[in-house]
UniProtKB/TrEMBL annotation:
Protein name per its UniProtKB record: Asp23/Gls24 family envelope stress response protein
Species the sequence originates in: Streptomyces bobili
Biased composition (Basic and acidic residues): 1-16, 63-78
Stretches the record annotates as Disordered: 1-21, 45-78
Length: 147
């Protein structure tokens, strides 16, 4: 063998390929992170019946514009490349009584951080909606309704 093994074709590094993250992947990451964030609130977790489809995430991803040489120089200076921008709407079901604002804020904060870290995307818009509140007093336990 000769020293030619280490030589590569004359294609510049930035033109060899691209990484794309789909809407579905971003939605799965966001749903998992939101579930983890809500699991830390013990007062709420016990009231939501098991098997509920929560959280539900709808997302829209926009790829980052093509970078110029100036963008590549900024990357090499230590900043991580941003692959695009995500807009998310997360629907959750929470236990009641609980701190609804704190739970929604935790979901927003953690989803934004993890989407940036795991998918390399910025979150431009994130809405958290509470679809349903579950109370221990309203669960069907075979008894008559509490009035």
């Amino acid at each position: 063998m000769s020293g030619e093994v280490d030589e590569r074709p004359g294609v510049p590094r930035g033109e060899r390929g691209a990484t794309a993250v789909t809407d579905r992947v971003v939605a799965k990451i966001a749903a998992r992170v939101a579930r983890e964030a809500l699991s830390r609130f013990a007062e709420s977790v016990g009231h939501v019946p098991p098997g509920r489809r929560t959280p539900h995430v709808s997302t829209s991803v926009r790829r980052a514009p093509e970078r110029t040489n100036a963008g590549r120089d900024a990357e090499s200076a230590g900043r991580r490349a941003v692959l695009g921008e995500a807009r998310l709407h997360i629907t959750v079901e929470l236990g009641y009584p609980s701190d609804i604002g704190a739970q929604c804020a935790a979901v927003r904060r953690e989803v934004t951080e993890r989407i940036r870290a795991w998918a390399g995307m910025e979150v431009s818009d994130l809405a958290v909606s509470v679809e349903r509140l579950h109370s221990a007093h309203t669960r069907h336990t075979g008894r008559e309704r509490v009035r």
